[in-house]
Amino acid sequence: MHSVSVVDLFCGVGGMTHGFVQEGFRVIAGIDADPSCRYAYERNNRSARFIEAYLEQVSASDIARLYPEGDLKILVGCAPCQPFSKYALRYVKAQRQDEKWKLVGDFGKLIEEIKPEIVSMENVPELQHHRVFTEFIKTLESEGYHLWYDVVDCVDYGVPQTRHRLVLLGSRLGEIALIPKTHRKSKTVANAIGGLPALRAGEQDADNPLHRASGLSDLNLRRIRSTPEGGTWKDWPKRLILECHKKETGRSYGSIYGRMSWNKPAPTITTEFHGIGSGRFGHPDQDRAISLREGALLQTFPRNYRFVENEDFSIGTLARHIGNAVPVRLARVIAQSIAKHLDL
Question: In terms of C-beta density within 10 A (0-12 exposed, 13-18 middle, 19 or more buried), how is residue 238 classed?
Fold first, then answer.
């Protein structure tokens, strides 16, 4: 039986890596261009090394040398997905204008040169409708990979949010597929964050610094107090409604300034979950947006996951790290699927 090693591209604060670690895989390294991810990545995944680099600064031979000689190589990655999101595409006039589009292609070129036995990619569903994904698939097929890919509802695998992601698995060793759905009943907001201490907007829990909520203006406090559990701005009295929402074009933004429901999954946790104006990110019954720790729990990071070394941190930066992460539970499912394929 060969030893197996994993390298994680675009690793961020370690969501994908941690899922593999929890399933007993040896992750050698994570590569990411953002140095502010280093502490969380290495602190929680002590066997893995954080390599700060842009993908174009790392050669295939550099990555190949990370794997111990003789090991089966697993290469995983989630190329930054902002250019493919529905919101970002409204502002992109032409696909070629955004340099980040090429990262999926760069990932494919690395696979072509390194030829790892197993590859996996997680990304936004919109990616599958673009030529870069078609070319990525052609590249892998030409290298002899057996491929499985589909849009996965993370709720079906125990993630307490309605997060749809494109998951791809590839193997040079034979047919491979994601394991069947693991949860018939959805995990809920209450399951994930129900036991945390109450907070006011702008407060931080003394015993859990990451349990920290953004402040709210007096006007937005009045707005969230007028929002019932599971409700939105459509439940407000007219005097509180934003002018843009009174127009016909604004009525399509139904979940803005909304509250979550205790007994349902959360909405997709984005990089702006710390603000009530960015989606249905209001706490179910406390007058605030969810805290950083609550966002991390909804992303299925363990309660003891350390994101920062001290209390001097930016809420916006940390929310971006958490929102961009692969949910740890989804990463575990991907790892379990590979373990089943390899008969580990």
Answer: exposed
Task: Round to whole Å and give the CA distance between 17 and 302.
Answer: 13
122: Cα separation from own chain's centroid: 9
Nearest CA among 144, 151, 152 for reference residue 170:
144
> Which residues are catalytically annotated?
81
* Strands, E assignment, the chain: 4-9, 26-32, 49-52, 72-77, 118-123, 146-153, 164-171, 204-205, 208-212
What residue type is assigned to position 337 of the chain?
Answer: S
- What per-residue confidence (pLDDT) applies to 90? 43
Domain 4-182+327-342 has CATH 3.40.50.150: yes
User: pLDDT tens digits, residue range 224-277?
Assistant: 999 999 998 888 888 777 655 555 544 555 567 899 999 999 999 999 999 998
At 243 the pLDDT is: 59
Closest CA to 89 of 99, 79, 76, 98: 98
> Cα(299)–Cα(116) distance, rounded to whole angstroms?
28
Ranges of each domain in the chain: 4-182+327-342, 189-324
pLDDT digits (tens, 9 = 90+) for 158-175: 999 999 999 999 999 999
Tell whether pTM > 0.70.
Answer: yes
pLDDT at 339 > cutoff 80: yes
Closest CA to 10 of 45, 42, 34, 44: 34
Superfamily of domain 189-324: DNA Methylase, subunit A, domain 2 (3.90.120.10)
C-alpha–C-alpha distance, residues 280 and 142, integer Å: 43
CA distances from 206 to 198, 211, 212, 303 (A): 12, 9, 9, 15
- Check residue 89 and give its pLDDT: 43
